[in-house]
Amino acid sequence: MAASSSPHALLVQQPLRPSSPLPCKQALLVAPLRRKTRLSTISCTAVRSPPVSPSVATGRIFNFAAGPATLPESVILKAQAELYNYHGSGMSIMEMSHRGKEFDAVIKKAESDLRLLLGISDDYAVLFLQGGATTQFSAVPLNLCAPGDSADFVVTGSWSDKAFKEAQKFCKANLIWSGKSEKYTKIPAFDGLEQNPDAKFLHICGNETIHGVEFKNYPSPSNKNALLVADMSSNFCSKPVDVSKFGLIYAGAQKNVGPSGVTIAIVRKDLIGNAQPITPVMLDYKIHADSASLYNTPPCFAIYICALVFEDLLEQGGLAGVEKKNQKKAGILYDTIDESNGYYVCPVEKSVRSLMNVPFTLKKSDLEKKFIEEAAKEGMVQLKGHRSVGGVRASIYNAMPFAGVEKLVAFMKDFQARHP
Amino acid sequence: MAASSSPHALLVQQPLRPSSPLPCKQALLVAPLRRKTRLSTISCTAVRSPPVSPSVATGRIFNFAAGPATLPESVILKAQAELYNYHGSGMSIMEMSHRGKEFDAVIKKAESDLRLLLGISDDYAVLFLQGGATTQFSAVPLNLCAPGDSADFVVTGSWSDKAFKEAQKFCKANLIWSGKSEKYTKIPAFDGLEQNPDAKFLHICGNETIHGVEFKNYPSPSNKNALLVADMSSNFCSKPVDVSKFGLIYAGAQKNVGPSGVTIAIVRKDLIGNAQPITPVMLDYKIHADSASLYNTPPCFAIYICALVFEDLLEQGGLAGVEKKNQKKAGILYDTIDESNGYYVCPVEKSVRSLMNVPFTLKKSDLEKKFIEEAAKEGMVQLKGHRSVGGVRASIYNAMPFAGVEKLVAFMKDFQARHP
């Protein structure tokens, strides 16, 4: 009674048209598809329609959003191809039991690929959680501190400030450095940090999404028993990291590695199992570590997309190469800003400028709205700075192609020439 | 500089083949697609390959999983068609800022359609959260009780038991009735419930996914000021509910209304704003109500799928009609069990049998493995009972077609005839 065969997946890649600057890869898909199958008996002829309206974008645009953010085009195409019938199972990945063999393979591969990418040893648990980094702002002190314990916070922007404020509910949280008076444009010198000798951990935010400051290396807790804890939401998997320097790394996926809805925690195993009694069950790392992130139903689809992204990053050769690409992209953008004779201004100290989020302003701030609107018309969207700081922000995560940044800097130069 | 046009979406529906009992709708999709556009200049000729292997299912199968569970086929096809380029935006819905106009329209429509479906008044907030019902097991007492407050729990199965146990961390939780000694096959008579006069709320689980017992109507808290609170994860939107009888309803989406990764809470507004000081920020309803579920990045894709499901339920005419369909499906399944002369046994008391989850055993329990295996071969999967209870369980949520249950009961009769 098994169903008979049906047409198979056909992915047709068309060459980029010289007239189009967009990565307009086109895929012709048959929904109930199967992998590794014969394509030879399907023939298709696609003839372009004339544009219905030149203002309607038909292909990929360059999406500079801070998160949710652009994903690798190949990942979206694969997810689309598989969405109706995952690997011939007759079900969408969205419909599958999280305890079935298909999803089991997905989450295990996601974990093992992430371990490869970041060189995560068996001393660490890798957890796929829900609730965003904001949930971890509570979970970190609840899991690592007794109520009276002390913990140190370096506040380099809005996100580490939120982590610091939330931690005050659950431990004695100390603000040992704040960049607020300098509008969050700096990272402190590590030797000048006055850490508390009894602090259980030292918390940093690896990259501040809103302010665009990024740690290029990491401080060590002065107390040998203390732990370094990092929110790496917005630069996770954008470069190699020596995980062994950290007690805990956590990251919302929706910048570099997936859609929103899944949060990854990498926790040194010996730290697990000491949550405060008031810890909600879903915030207790032990619960998730003991059940391999399957204590209750996980966000399966988001984990599946992460798995595709990790696979893609490995196929690119891993994070050292990814970092080089990110340096090159950020390089031409910061150079354009710095060589604009003050037309564009990035307030962040050069040594700690983020490779991921590039905030800048126009000297003539009344032109910023026009800048953002014109860029959008040319297929570069989501360039508005965060509502708390204004200006312009270009988020250029792993999946932003070099061509996208090239196009942006060409536009910036042109805009400057047209509006001197 | 706008991109030029590209091939457009083409949805080809093929008639069902008489030889196939599966709802094998087939869609031919062009990935970078746009709605409402001209199709005439695309021509495709698809010639079937012979089956690679007859054992590989190529179309939809009937998925009886308890959750994540089957979704409406039309929803999956629509999500697939839109995945690469959402409404001509040049982005996937997965890549969009949660504060952009496209996602804003999605989440607002999801909320307004859900309000229509359930007749939710403005006295209630509708929240899209993360972490599953299990997170609500903590959030409910944290938001509705001071630490010493009393709350009553009726335990009709595993899920209400978990809710009761978690609440003990945050309030004085009273177990006022348990079906454990009768293996969770009953719902108590409401007039016999010994409620505590000082209880802040009375908690029930509307439908126990594992044990298959469902409330057909609802008890009232004896204290006029107390609230009825229900976990409706596994029968949410399967029938009309008078929301005004409840202080709070919560539900994980992954049964009737979406994929895993989003949890919906319907909270009476006057109850919001009194969370205990130790409430993690992400568990505080006020945080989410004040920011329309956008305090931090929500699980955008999961919410988008829910929006498509709500739209589909409205197009079906709403929940009264959906309930009728569910009654009809469950009816033929329970009839088959009851008319099998004890070959199949459902342990649940008839008056409270779930329309969603139908657990049963075979008198000859050694045949259960064979039953499940043979059903899978015929395209009916995920029929294994929960690991804690064994046996067989057919979850027949909204999106399970009548044809799926018809096929299951035909198989059951045939199996019984073949293995008397």
From TrEMBL, chains A, B:
Membrane-crossing ranges are none
Give the superkingdom in one word: Eukaryota
Q: Which residues form the Aminotransferase class V domain?
A: 61-408
Q: Which reaction does it catalyse?
A: O-phospho-L-serine + 2-oxoglutarate = 3-phosphooxypyruvate + L-glutamate; 4-(phosphooxy)-L-threonine + 2-oxoglutarate = (R)-3-hydroxy-2-oxo-4-phosphooxybutanoate + L-glutamate
As cofactor, the record names: pyridoxal 5'-phosphate
Tell me a GO biological process for this protein: L-serine biosynthetic process
UniProt keyword list: Amino-acid biosynthesis, Aminotransferase, Pyridoxal phosphate, Serine biosynthesis, Transferase
| One GO CC annotation | chloroplast stroma
The pathway where this protein functions is:
Amino-acid biosynthesis; L-serine biosynthesis; L-serine from 3-phospho-D-glycerate: step 2/3
NCBIfam families on file: PRK05355.1, serC_1
Q: Which family does it belong to?
A: Belongs to the class-V pyridoxal-phosphate-dependent aminotransferase family. SerC subfamily.
Q: Which PANTHER family match?
A: PHOSPHOSERINE AMINOTRANSFERASE (PTHR43247)
Q: What is this protein called?
A: phosphoserine transaminase
Which taxonomic lineage does the organism of this UniProt entry have?
Eukaryota, Viridiplantae, Streptophyta, Embryophyta, Tracheophyta
